[in-house]
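Format notes (please read before filing issues)

Several people have asked whether sequences and structure tokens are stored in separate files. They are not. Every record keeps both together, in the order shown below: the sequence lines, then the token lines. Line labels are part of the format and must not be stripped during preprocessing.
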Amino acid sequence: MAANLVKTGISGLDAMLYGGVPEGNQVIISGGPGAGKTLLSFEYLYRSAKMGITSVFFALEETPERVLANAKAAFTEFTDIDDLIKSKKLIIDGEDPTTVLRSGSAGGTSQYEFGKVVSDIESLVVSSGAKRIVIDSLSVIDMLVSDPVVYRRSMLALVNNLRRLGVTSFLTAEMANPERRELRFKVEYFVFDDIIVMYEKGEEDKRMLAMEVIKTRGAKHSFVTTPYEITSKGVNVMSAEEMGL
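Then the structure lines:
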């Protein structure tokens, strides 16, 4: 039986995903600094909220206020963001990253702090009835939980919690190197259902952005590395599938 697909609403990305992300999947959005991971994830929630689906952005790397300001600065044609927030269809929340990391640096408290983050996310999803969520970013949790075995267990616990909540989530993660030829994944990323990578290719003023779907559990997807751009109207993915090539 084919999975129900959740449309991201992002131009070209749904074509690469052959219709969307399987409902209930947990998706890693990986890339280097400046690739647009947070903006793409924000747009996923914005498009969902416009469809009437309650959506939660949980910020760990920046404050919710800064996330909102950055999104408005990049997507100037998203003029109804405040209306969606007021109607509680788009919820932007999170933990102060400096507080989380400072608390987690004390001996024996990192697991407590991770558990608190997961508990706060769960409470927010349950109280709001959200079906879509973004967690930005897993890199903070990586810094919080230094033991590699504990970190892997933490990632598995996080995925299991998100599945139990029945949400379709995007979780951002930093790549050590933004070039495709240097692509490396931590083993624990493969507990997630889908992996989408956002690359930066070329040099300085000749830099090109491109994305690739590495895997989608439960559905087919494009294997083509596809250029994209970030515009005032949103992320424009120039997929061959959408163009009929």
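For reference, the curators noted about this record: The chain has a mean pLDDT of 87. The domain at 5-243 is CATH 3.40.50.300 (Rossmann fold).
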